[in-house]
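Sanity check. The docking grid for pyridoxal-5'-phosphate depends on where the pocket ends up, so I'm generating a full predicted complex first rather than guessing from homology. Inputs follow.
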Amino acid sequence: MKMMKADELALAGGKPAVTLKCPRWPVSGRQELVWMEKVVRSGKWSWLGPHERAFCEEYARFIGSKYCVCLANGTVTIQCALQAVGMKPGDEVIVPGLTWVATAQAALDIGANVVLVDIDPETLCIDPAAIEKAITRKTKAIIPVHLYGCMCDMDAIMKIAHRHKLKVVEDVAHQHGSRWRNRGAGAIGNAGSFSFQQSKPLTCGEGGAVTCNDKAVYDTIFALKQVGWGPDGKPANRYGHNYSMTEMQAVLLRGGLQRLTRQIALREDNAQCLAAGLQKIGGPLRAVRRDPRITRQAYYAMTFVFDPSLADGVTKAEYAKALAAEGCAMGGTYAAVYKNSLLNLYDTTSPVPFRDRKTIQNYRALKLPNVEKAVNETALVMSHPQLLGTRGYMTQWVQAIAKVNDHLGQVKALCRKQADGKKGQSDKC
Ligand SMILES: Cc1ncc(COP(=O)(O)O)c(C=O)c1O
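Predicted complex below; grid placement will be based on this.
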């Protein structure tokens, strides 16, 4: 029988360096089961029941906003928030070129013209200088997306917004609980949009919420998601839809919220431990630098920078492949929004073709250098359940990364050989 050497790459058939496991996601507790049974028996399953009301209060307190309203998902939250802050069809909204495609789609679907701009190469979040350059007479709003494990520069963004009288709708789908100078992400701009979809650090399967500090914005969002009815149960004279959530979802959110502060602290601790470990071993991979103005970083994913100039010719994809074999599965980023195949403006279900094409930024010709470099060459992310692992698990990650760093030449040779093998097979077909 072949003996596996501890330092032999898993990619070459060696033993993976990571043997411990991280918790499975999502996590649930006994409290949700007790509440859920009561909800089922109560017959009050929707229409702003006691759990939804309680969650809205609890979540607003957690974020530090005056109001919170629950919706069906984190896409309609963006639509309703933009409409509530006054966006009209034909207005321009500035969106980062790197985000989940829904950020842009939500704005397009309410008739806004989405202007995509470049990101900060370190944080992967929207670059304030790029926002400033993209402002025109038609610009009405900015959507800063607090992406993966970094917050946007909210000082610079709020300054620009005040100077140009623009509204700010924060997309906080990734950062339930981050704080910028002790202010909660989602309570800094005019509105904050949250997603509670299955993969998110606070989840009820599908769902969303908007936080805000302005009663008029709150009332409008409520009417837009509740078929035109206001929070007082009276008609609000708005053209609304049904974007409500159920009591069962609210139960899951209330249970999750009870664990969230502890989970954020554990992830933050583990992220710092990993960052320090990587700094010690050196090599092509490092944790992204943390902005000292972030007083609490909640992670949907931890962001890493891969430096190809330190990788002996190994590409980001090859490096990630070698790490995955060692038991450290890391992800790449989303596709650039303007290249995302889901953003098909000319599909017949898209409302975009019914507007003047000349007014829309030409996505096909767009090239945002920092977005492209991050997507193709430098950015890697580690998902939040992995950051809930033990200290031993983190240590194994650092050991695995060190092992791959020590064998870069072999990683390159093995990956190229496998790629050539696959090419040879497809050439035969
Ligand atoms: C940054 C960002 N914005 C918006 C959304 C949309 O949220 P949902 O899937 O709940 O509609 C997501 C979801 O993954 C997201 O990651």
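Relevant for the grid: The radius of gyration is 23 Å.
Also worth noting: The chain has a mean pLDDT of 95.
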